[in-house]
Structure to design on (507 residues):
């Protein structure tokens, strides 16, 4: 790198060097193992079909992780102004990596693609700012955009098990380069709800388990509000002058990084009018388009191997066109899977041009499109921090991806959850675009998080109860169709203390 730091990089070149190939680069904090010139990973590239298509694959340990030198900084703040070689961020590290690759790797055709899922998706998005001329196509997939909305805070609500479980291992210091992963935290039980309930306030987790070793955990607790610490880790304000072709990918049921793909797409679209920029949102959990065939999630079936369809129809053609000049790129601005009709749809814009629909919480637990005649009424409930509302009925130490399609009656039947419901629908209803909840609330506690879910309720005679699609209050920009003769309900719950953030949350 321009400041003299060396980044460990694994390069896989086709044996046939009689022709040239584009480079596909993934930058990751999760190790580019296996290490050693004679070692090969079980899988390389976005999907197996890229091996057959012919590419040079490059994996890199980002600065300060595993075998790379330097200091690791979580969600490295982007430096808009750089005055010298010591001013480095993920944009400069990506630029310098590409410059080295095109100059030193045999048989490359001078074009580079950048991709990654989750944290590597953040590095892909950050790396497309002020790009090297050889960077021709970028696909941030489930990218983190802002940790106040992605992963560890769901729109500001602290997601305790996901945060603790991740940083108790990933957040441990790495004093020198290593090929070894940190050991995962042992809860001593498979019941995560009980583990965190027994732990009590967050300070107890620090004193009993983390012992002050996790620097980012300490910083999070020191910054409980979205102050400058979080704001400077927001990537969105810096998405100007990005790479010439972008394909943002996300999952409709991704509980970790749903905010990122939707808002990175939207920001690139707004700030870079000349850039080819498309959005793909399918019926997947976190990374499901790469890690599963996409036929189902939990109890919900989607009628096809949706991941394979995406890989063959969208992902490979995107990179083939912009890196090799082969074929046409995917047409259409947004490609979304309709989870009610089990079919893909392409849109000329996202969100689509459709009328907004207002619905209101009413008396007797009703949910109606009729404007209330009076706004003086209210519903109330007691929230007991000793019995916080769980986000799942499964017994697990952390967050299972299946909870995004889980039957919600376990929460709706609690006395500390309010439920509002329409009558059975007479015909199919399609909900597309962002869903926002506007609440007038008060609490006798000192702190509270209100979580709102929009839930597709199957008829009572359906058999095994399933939620075919759920939507959080502000996170969603996805298309779905209700089952015919279905009902809609919205459930709100609150927790009175932030050290018990066990409130319901789903999409």
């Amino acid at each position: 790198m321009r400041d003299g730091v060396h980044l460990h990089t694994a390069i896989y070149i086709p044996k046939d060097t009689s022709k040239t190939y584009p480079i596909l680069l993934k930058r990751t904090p999760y190790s580019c193992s296996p290490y050693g010139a004679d070692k090969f990973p079980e899988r390389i590239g976005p999907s197996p079909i890229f091996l057959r298509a012919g590419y040079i694959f490059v994996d890199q340990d980002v600065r300060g992780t595993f075998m790379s030198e330097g200091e690791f900084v979580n969600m490295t703040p982007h430096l808009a102004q750089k005055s010298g070689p010591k001013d480095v961020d993920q944009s400069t590290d990506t630029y310098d990596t590409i410059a080295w690759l095109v100059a030193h790797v045999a048989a490359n055709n001078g074009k580079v693609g950048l991709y990654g899922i989750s944290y590597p998706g953040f590095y892909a998005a950050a790396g497309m700012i002020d790009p090297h001329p050889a960077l021709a196509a970028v696909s941030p997939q489930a990218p983190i955009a802002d940790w106040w909305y992605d992963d560890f805070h769901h729109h500001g609500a602290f997601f305790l098990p996901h945060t603790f479980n991740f940083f108790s291992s990933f957040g441990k210091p790495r004093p020198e380069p290593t090929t070894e992963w940190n050991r995962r935290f042992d809860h001593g039980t498979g019941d995560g709800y009980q583990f965190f309930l027994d732990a009590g306030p967050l300070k107890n987790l620090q004193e009993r388990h983390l012992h002050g070793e996790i620097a980012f955990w300490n910083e999070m607790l020191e910054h409980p509000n979205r102050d400058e610490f979080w704001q400077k880790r927001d990537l969105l304000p810096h998405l100007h002058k990005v790479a010439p072709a972008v394909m943002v990918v996300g999952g409709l049921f991704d509980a970790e990084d749903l905010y990122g793909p939707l808002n990175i797409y939207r920001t690139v679209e707004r700030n870079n009018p000349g850039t080819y920029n498309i959005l793909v949102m399918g019926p997947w959990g976190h990374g499901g388009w790469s890690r599963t065939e996409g036929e189902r999630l939990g109890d919900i079936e989607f009628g096809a191997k949706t991941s394979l369809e995406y890989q063959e129809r969208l992902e490979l053609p995107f990179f083939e066109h912009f890196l090799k000049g082969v074929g046409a790129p995917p047409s259409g601005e947004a490609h979304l899977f309709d989870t009610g009709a089990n079919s893909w749809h392409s849109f000329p814009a996202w969100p689509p041009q459709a009328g907004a629909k207002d619905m209101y919480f009413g008396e007797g637990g009703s949910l109606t499109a009729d404007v209330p005649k009076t706004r003086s009424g209210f519903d109330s409930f007691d929230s007991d921090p000793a019995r916080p509302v769980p986000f799942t009925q499964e017994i697990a130490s952390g967050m299972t991806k299946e909870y995004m399609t889980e039957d919600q009656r376990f929460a709706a039947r609690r006395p500390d959850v309010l439920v509002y419901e329409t009558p059975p629908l007479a015909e199919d209803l399609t909900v597309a675009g962002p869903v926002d909840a506007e609440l007038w609330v008060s609490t006798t506690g000192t702190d509270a998080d209100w979580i709102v879910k929009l839930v597709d309720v199957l008829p009572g005679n359906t058999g095994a109860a399933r939620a075919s699609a759920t939507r959080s209050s502000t996170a969603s920009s996805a298309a779905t169709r209700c089952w015919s003769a279905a009902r809609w309900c919205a459930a709100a719950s609150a927790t009175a203390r932030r050290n018990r953030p066990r409130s319901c949350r789903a999409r």
